[in-house]
Amino acid sequence: MPTPTRTTARHGLHGLVATCFGMALAHLLAALTVPDASPVYAVGSTVVDLTPTPLKEWAIRQFGTADKAVLLGSVVVVVLLLAALAGVVARRRPALGVGALVVLAGLATTAAVTRPGAGALDLVPGVAAAVSGAGVLLWLVRWEARTAPATDPGPIDDSAIERSAADQSAGPSRRGVLLASAGLTAVAAGLATTGEWMLRRARQIADVVLPRAADPAGPFPTGLEETVPGVTPLRTPSGEFYRIDTRLMLPRVDVDSWSLTIDGDVAREVSFTFDELTAMPLTERDITLTCVSNEVGGQYVGSARWLGVPLRDLLERAGIEDTGADQILSTDVDGMTLSTPLTVALDGRDSMIALGMNGSALPLQHGFPARMVVPGLYGFVSACKWITRMTLTTYDAEQAYWTEREWATDAPIRVASRIDTPKALSRQEAGELVIGGIAWAQRVGIERVEVRIDGQAWREAVMGPDVNDDHWRQWYLPWRAEPGTHYLACRAIAKDGTVQEAVRRTPFPSGSSGIQEIAVTVT
Question: What pLDDT digit, counting tens, does each position of 312-338 carry?
């Protein structure tokens, strides 16, 4: 006779199997129709949008670029717990348990169809998850019920035992239910794997050869990384460039049908295909980008060589004189919006719609086929990836995603520096060591970096090559380290005399500030 605990566990398993099957089928159908309508991704994206800013910042601090994986994993765990509960409920009230799974699928479907730009096809994965999941759960529950022993078997004789054995050999068994559950789980794994494989193939971009720049950046100097181990390279490889955005899944972009439209408060609406952009005179520049979520001493900063069309050239095609606009409202291929002050396109800085990064076309994770790059502003107000529209408007008339969440509308990057070596809390052998790192002050440039050891006077560091004012600089300071615990700090001074702020500020709403100080143990 099975124990109540085992019976409950089996019904919980039925809920898990049914939900996994429904989600896997939905994921495959989403790969064939609308990838973002996959239930887990749809719910995850909604959670991202609804998460309060302090919690988002906490997640980025704790998990870094793994925050998306942690979020998706959390969504899956919660869904599976609710699915197991639905299976347990279905043991005595099948309709209620099945209804609970339908409600779960309905929530995912609602999340999918309320996304910007959603259409009728966004319904398909969620509906498929509801129908298949409910059907599997009901089938397993009814099969389980047919295998359950009678609650009052009555007197048992030898003939009754023989008849019972014959009935069990001819009818359903609990072992059969478990085998069926295992088979359904295997099918679900196959469906999910196939769907993910299709999504990955769809996200692969064809080889795109970009023309040479009409206005090249010129030779790139040799960085200190050749002589100072541990210092961040002068240029960040594309594969190591930080990625912070709200997308749980990279978009699928067909470069042949993609276009960039400029509309709003302009003399005329204009659109450009990818080929039309590459046929225009291209500019090449070495520029550092920084995320507003970067904490003091953080890793969300990178430098690359960008190739693109000057933003001013594109806006002039649309006619922007005397329009009254003060904002460029950028929209990506899936409806995400960012706002950028119009002045940054007109004040002489190297703002561009970038098509290339470090000598190749943009990687998909960094905005292929085109993204905005604006020196001197944090990415949330300047770096729209997968851009497809720029609408000239006013801040009073339109608000973008981050301004709706009360982040700053104009966020110039603060003067900052970082210690790369030695690492915080590391143990070092006494003797000749090197303290080194990077510093940045976009639009102004870094003049020097100073280092403080154990609260003593600031000492001037040796500076690396000066690429340009929009690019970070490396630095280092030789240090004869004595045994004990030491506290190291650094600060940057810009070419206009601005000293890195010592006042501590959190990233919200316009970027962090403060002096990085680390502890190192020397033995």
Answer: 999 999 999 877 899 999 999 989 999
